[in-house]
Write a structure and sequence with these properties.
single chain; mainly alpha; 5 helices; binds zinc ion
């Protein structure tokens, strides 16, 4: 439970940074981060994203790099694929994308 709690606070920190650097509100920043981690693998994306007007492909390569840099900064020492998976668990609970590896560390 405590790991979930600290993951959430890291995700909150990443969202706050994105919202500040992009000059967008919290919800937009959250959606941008979701676009970055989602990769279209989760059930929510496959079934609900169209209705929500969520198009993960409209995230530019530049923004993707910016977000990745931020994720690496906040989640120090964490494998980037594993970090994305953990962030996705927070942003899209109940619709896990496949785990990056069998051992969850
Ligand atoms: Zn998702």
């Amino acid at each position: 439970m405590s790991e979930i709690k600290s993951d959430r606070s890291m995700v909150d920190r990443i969202i706050a940074c994105i919202s500040k650097s992009e000059g967008i509100d919290w919800n937009e920043a959250r959606q941008m981060l979701h676009k970055y981690v989602c990769e279209g693998k989760c059930n929510w994306y496959k079934t609900k994203s169209k209705a929500a007007g969520f198009d993960r492909t409209d995230l530019t390569e530049k923004k993707r790099e910016d977000i990745e840099k931020l994720v690496r900064q906040v989640m120090k020492g964490c494998d980037i694929e594993y970090a994305k998976w953990r962030i996705h668990n927070i942003l899209c609970p109940g619709h896990p994308r496949p785990s990056p590896s069998k051992d969850r560390r």
